[in-house]
What we know:
This protein is of the alpha+beta class. The protein contains 13 helices and 13 strands. Helix content is 29%, strand content 16%.
Amino acid sequence: xxxxxxxxxxxGCAACAQSCxxxxxxxxYDEEGFLQPHIDNDKCxxxxxxxxxCPELNHIKRLDYTNQRFYALINDEDCKKSSSGxxxxxxxxxxxxxxxxxxxxxxxxxFEVKHICVETINELEELRGSKYVQSAIGETYxxxxxxxxxxxxxxxxxxGCQVGGLYAFLNGKRYEGLLYTMDLVCHxxxxxxxxxxxxxxxxxxHSPNGELRNIEGFRFRKLDSWSIVPAVKFSKSKxxxxxxxxxxxxxxxxxxxxxxxxxFNCQYCNTQRIGTFTIADFWGIGRHGLKFKRNVSSGVxxxxxxxxxxxxxxxxxxxxxxxxxxxxxxxxxEQVNLKSPMKRLPARNTAVKDLIDPLISLEEFSKRYSLPYxxxxxxxxxxVVKDLIYVFGLYNVYKTIIYKFEK
Length: 407
């Protein structure tokens, strides 16, 4: 009888579903809003392909990391449209200009995050920006295999488990020179169900009778800086910054109490990455023995070249971004998830379901899980100072000073 990875190890990568030649496996949302594989026993012939292609049951063979190198990257143009230093945009444009195709996560009109493909630079906008929700892979792996068989270059960006799922689906074949993968250093992934429940609570606060119409935009962070400043936009309103209990989704994220169960057992939370490249915010650059002379206020990307490819393409990329090689120790120092997975807290037992529960308000949720909810004098002072900094356009100056001298 077929037995897939349990919920404490299944990452939802969908390699099993896409490997099944009898369409016997479907990815369905569970009670916590996470995608899980479900087997239709009437269709299953017990061929075992799903088990063979599961990267949790059969870990992918790792790379030879002797040529691994670490870089800081700043794309001065696209870092205002992408997260951090804009590394993803640089490599996406590099592939597209060669006639290739790019796969990454995009947000739908219902705020579900799904992997899609883009074939032009104009379409790239859909893939930019942070999405702190696990994306649905859909048929992406099958589509990529077809593109590779047609000898077309592909860039795939996703979490480590999604990149691992792709290679597992491809039987471990890396398609050097055609397939380029970019895995993200992530803390963990919340569910679409939790995010959807959170948005419903935001609606109740700001538009209880539907007077502002529907939510038409949600921003997890500012794109022109390191800052995590969530904001929401209704059809009949401007962007509204979310503070205190209204920011419960991100506060719970950073506390690590709404992640998928497998995130606490993640095999990719180390420097032995799975992708061609790894990207993240370069936390701590210039603060650990080697100065960094560039302005860091708009963010800097950490780029890890896991296969030693960068020296051969550096001249092409430097036309699009500032790139500087940095020491491994500095790159890893403040990257918690390049060392180990997040620790599972007891609050994880109930936090996801409570965030989904329509009867639990965001203030009650925040109180229950010790998240910020009350406007104290200290909070008011900090808010006034931050608002003045933004109003007078001083954020970049402020962040550069704080970042360089804060220890």
